[in-house]
Amino acid sequence: MNNQKLFESLSSEIKHSVTNCLNKILEAEIDIFLGQADQSKNKKNGFYEREFAIKGVGCVRLRMPRDRNSNFKSLIIPENEV
User: Fold this and answer.
1) Which residue has the higher pLDDT, 26 or 79?
2) N or C: which end of the chain has fewer CB within 10 A?
3) How many CB atoms are closer than 10 A to CB 72?
């Protein structure tokens, strides 16, 4: 395997690992949010996908969780800037 292919393979693995890690953190983040007393009647309401650019990694596709009351805001992933 030449250096270019090795670099591409390694970059792909890193991007995949970062994506999986961030998606797991987002799931934990909404679970913690919905476990708060003031959210006792609120529930998960699926997710939406969005791309998020990370310097040195590139764009990753994340599954951003939603809640029924639309109160959840991630503390680790900033909102889309329009």
Assistant:
1) 26
2) C
3) 19
CA 39 – CA 12 distance, rounded (Å): 38
Q: What is the 3-state secondary structure (H, E, C) of 3-63?
A: HHHHHHHHHHHHHHHHHHHHHHHHHHHHHHHHCCHHHCCCCEEEEEEEEEEECCCEEEEEE
Type of residue numbered 17 = S
Taking the CA atoms of residue 60, residue 63, residue 67 and residue 68 in that order, the dihedral angle to the nearest 10 degrees is 120
Q: What is the pLDDT of residue 35?
A: 96
Cβ 66 vs Cβ 46: under 8 Å: yes
Average pLDDT over residues 46-64: 95
